[in-house]
């Protein structure tokens, strides 16, 4: 691995995810915004502060190939360096260190808390943190997900530690956009700081979990083993307890803190706490005791209870793990002490010896303070599944039983006694692991093994299942203009048939939407915007065993934009190609057309040209003189709409033909002509009175010059010479001259 060369010494890193990304970066955007919301570039001379007479010369530092174990693309940059080396460090009891903020700028930072986007909350929190802890203002900044949507390699160093551009100013320039490759970003920063040679700390503030198929727990263990003195702190902004467990291990593996923040005040407090921890160093390890009491044996898949006595701190839990297991993540089953005493737990599906543990959420991180053994034994009839699941999600169920023809496992409301009318079911013949879809209504349910025998169906086993409300979030720019599309970062069940749609504000039905995209298309999804400005809702619609249910609706304001068409001339000749200036979004499918004056349809046009990069564009006039309109046609999710109209008058083309009055049959003769000479115009020879513009006896294109040579037919008679104009929509005869063939 090439760690690159970096001017940093004793660095510390702040890692902020999309939540704090905004904090530190507000960088989770989907599309470029104007001015204040445009991403700030610090990697060029243009981005550096202007020199003054009193300022020391600004230098740059090369950073080559900042890579990671998780697939981030190498980074090579040249950035503004600090004027003085001491400006780039934070003094701590163990000596100086540098700080790097690594920001998750994923699209979910557009999500709102108390009516305010996480991006804006994070921006303010970063300013508060730096104001309260000025030394932290020396931190550098790495952002990810701020330039491209759907790209796990979008990781960029934006500010060197100690650079003169204030950290909050750089954060303010970031706009939420992409994914959350938080593991690769931490590894990239660690490699850039050469953690084998110097002390380093990462502070991760994230509003989401890893979305790029990497393991933050494994990365934390690897970095701890490699680093001279490496620490990672993690702030989970708006994460659920279960989501927080998936990233807290990054802090615990390296001796750092994991702090949850659910609103603006808690986020500011969390950043302040972490900043103080950076400056003061790790606290003394706290101690506590606990006892746990559970059954000696339980059947596979069964629900059992564990009594406990202990600290009962927020997010303390009892878990079940293999014997000798030392990690505080990856457990087989767990239950939070805050849910009550005793705690309900579900046995695993494999018989054997296991341990029950009390895990304390201590100041220094999750710590095991009590354990006891438990044995899991086989059962003749068993159902093995997780004890709870979100609405609409697919549930994996393992079973033991007779496996008769017609036996099945079903999902029913708690206390349901009938063997029909179930919410979901699967036959045991389908395999040892079955898939059942949870209903769309939260509540208490049961999984049952139903056997089919000669005397009917019989329920052999029942286990409880809690169907929980899912955490639903829709994150996007809430105020946009008419244009191409809206990028929506979503959190939800993600089951087959779920979709995100756009509907008029307050719309309740689950059909007739203005635009939609299935969540199976990926995250984020991209929706084409409606064609009319106004107030809309963006909704997450669940497809479950109960049908479709709207789980969340978030307001969207769609503003109008100017449209216009301006032909280069108010009057043109039929068939002429002329320029038209246009104003509009240039959506895929937008076009400028020419139609008869007052025409209202968006099909059947006489001529059209798609609006693309060229402005003005060129369009060819129809072949019939008269009054016309030039129009801008806007294409959106709701169809085509006429957005701008300008009048156009088309006049008849003029042409002349000069040739002998008569020629001998079979001979060649010259014809002199004048006319528009458009591409495709020609002079032809046809029988007198002939009306078609094909099947001519002889012809020559006007591109051949002002005099053409035609050949007389072999049959004597009355004929006509014609100037044929090639216009948009077909050919037309401009002038005719008689000629006799002898």
From TrEMBL:
Keywords: Signal. PROSITE patterns: PROKAR_LIPOPROTEIN (PS51257), VWFA (PS50234). Pfam families: VWA_2. The keyword Zinc does not apply. The keyword Coiled coil does not apply. InterPro entries: VWF_A, vWFA_dom_sf. Residues 98-274 form the VWFA domain. Residues 1-33 form the signal peptide. This is VWFA domain-containing protein.
């Amino acid at each position: 691995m090439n760690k690159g060369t970096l001017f940093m010494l004793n660095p510390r890193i702040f890692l902020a995810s999309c939540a704090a990304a905004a904090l530190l970066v507000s960088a989770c955007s989907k599309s470029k915004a104007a001015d204040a919301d445009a991403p700030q570039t610090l990697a060029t001379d243009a981005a550096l502060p202007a020199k003054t007479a009193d300022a020391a010369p600004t230098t740059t530092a090369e950073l080559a190939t900042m890579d990671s174990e998780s697939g981030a693309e190498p980074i090579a940059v040249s950035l503004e360096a600090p004027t003085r080396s001491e400006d780039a460090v934070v003094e701590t009891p163990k000596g100086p260190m540098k700080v790097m903020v690594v920001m998750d700028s994923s699209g979910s930072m557009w999500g709102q808390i108390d009516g305010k986007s996480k991006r804006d909350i994070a921006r303010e929190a970063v300013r508060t943190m730096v104001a309260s802890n000025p030394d932290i203002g020396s931190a550098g900044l790495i952002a990810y997900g701020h330039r491209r949507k759907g790209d796990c390699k979008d990781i960029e160093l934006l500010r060197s530690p100690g650079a003169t551009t204030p950290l909050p100013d750089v954060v303010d320039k970031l706009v939420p956009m992409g994914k959350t490759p938080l593991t690769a970003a931490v590894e990239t920063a660690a490699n850039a700081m050469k953690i084998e040679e110097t002390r380093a700390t990462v502070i991760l503030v994230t509003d989401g979990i890893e979305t790029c198929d990497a393991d933050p727990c494994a990365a934390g263990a690897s970095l701890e083993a490699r680093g001279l003195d490496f620490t990672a702190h993690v702030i989970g902004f708006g994460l659920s307890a279960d989501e927080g467990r998936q990233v807290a291990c990054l802090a615990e593996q390296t001796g750092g803190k994991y702090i949850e923040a659910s609103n603006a005040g808690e986020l500011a407090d969390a950043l302040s706490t972490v900043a103080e921890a950076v400056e003061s160093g790790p606290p003394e390890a706290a101690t506590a005791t606990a006892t746990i009491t559970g059954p000696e044996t339980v059947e596979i898949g069964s629900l059992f209870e564990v009594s406990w006595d202990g600290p009962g701190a927020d997010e303390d839990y009892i878990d079940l793990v293999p014997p000798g297991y030392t990690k505080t993540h990856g457990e087989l089953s767990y239950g939070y002490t805050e849910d009550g005493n005793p705690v309900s737990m579900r046995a695993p599906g494999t018989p054997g010896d296991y341990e029950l543990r009390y895990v304390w959420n201590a100041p220094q991180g999750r710590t095991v303070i009590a354990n006891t053994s438990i044995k899991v034994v086989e059962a003749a009839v068993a159902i093995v599944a997780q004890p709870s699941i979100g609405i609409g999600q697919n549930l994996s169920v393992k079973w033991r039983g007779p496996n008769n023809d017609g036996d099945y496992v079903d999902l029913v409301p708690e206390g349901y006694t009938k063997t029909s009318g179930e919410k979901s079911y699967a036959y045991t013949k389908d395999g040892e692991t079955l898939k059942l879809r949870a209903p769309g209504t939260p509540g208490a349910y049961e999984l049952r093994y139903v056997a089919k025998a000669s005397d009917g169906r019989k329920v052999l086993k029942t286990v409880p299942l809690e169907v929980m409300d899912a955490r639903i979030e829709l994150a996007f720019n809430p105020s946009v203009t008419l244009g191409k599309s809206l990028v929506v970062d979503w959190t939800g069940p993600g089951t087959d048939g779920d979709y995100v749609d756009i509907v008029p504000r307050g719309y309740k039905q689950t059909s007739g939407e203005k635009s939609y995209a299935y969540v199976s298309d990926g995250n984020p999804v991209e929706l084409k915007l409606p064609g009319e400005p106004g107030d809309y809702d963006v909704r997450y619609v669940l497809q479950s065993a109960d049908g479709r249910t709207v789980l969340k609706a978030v307001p969207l304001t769609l503003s109008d934009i100017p449209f216009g068409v301006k032909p280069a001339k108010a009057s043109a000749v039929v068939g002429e190609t002329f320029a038209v200036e246009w104003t509009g979004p240039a959506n895929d499918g937008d076009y400028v057309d020419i139609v008869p004056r007052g025409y209202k349809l968006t099909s059947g046009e006489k001529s059209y040209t798609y609006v693309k990069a060229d402005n003005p564009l060129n369009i060819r006039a129809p072949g019939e003189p008269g009054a016309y309109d030039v129009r801008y046609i806007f294409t959106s999710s709701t169809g085509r709409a006429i957005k701008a109209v300008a009048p156009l008058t088309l006049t008849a083309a003029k042409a002349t033909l000069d040739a002998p009055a008569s020629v001998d049959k079979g001979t060649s003769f010259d014809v002199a002509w004048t006319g528009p000479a458009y591409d495709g115009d020609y002079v032809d020879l046809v029988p007198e009175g002939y009306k078609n513009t094909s099947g001519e006896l002889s012809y020559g294109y006007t591109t051949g010059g002002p005099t053409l040579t035609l050949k007389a037919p072999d049959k004597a008679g009355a004929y006509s010479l014609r100037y044929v104009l090639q216009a948009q929509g077909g050919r037309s005869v401009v002038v005719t001259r008689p000629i006799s063939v002898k």
